[in-house]
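Example 3.2
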Amino acid sequence: MARKIYEEYSYIDLDNYYVYPNLSVLRNKFHEQDKAKAQELEFRLVASKTIKLFGNPIEVHSVSDILAIHQFLFGEMYEWAGQYRCVNISKSGKAFLPIQSFDMAEKFLNRLITNYLNNSGSREVICRDLVEILDNLNYFHPFREGNGRTQREVIRSLALMKGYECEISIGVDDDVYNLYMDGTVYSDKKKLEKLFDKLLLKL
């Protein structure tokens, strides 16, 4: 199956808080304003950090650990790594959670994580709970950039904490890519269930 095409993100950032004026390039610690070069630099830095996390993952017990993962992955590139976004975002016509509701979202996601850690036992229950966490974390979309890479590492870490492997590698498998993207972009929990049923492997 070929990869589906999804619309770009839209941002309400009238003051250019995250981007250089008159450019779509994110402000970065290297002051790189060429879009292609900035994207390549970010890719290399985050890939290196991802490899380090693969061998020494950050355990996820609350949203604060999700912020720590984002900080670890993107901290060399962006000053705002590990911090909640301060602009609203939409993708393919779907608005993510408005920043005014972040306090409520953090409390709700913390409850989902606590429930998962305390109660999930069977593979079926683990899959179900991971679907809920991923669906809500994606709607939360707490960061200006790097939400997908962060949430995939969060899921991998949570699965490891239950004795499972779950690597959502969207760069290799088109079926995994489509299930993941459809599941997150359109909040399609059935697709996410199929995704986890395909990827969740006992260690």
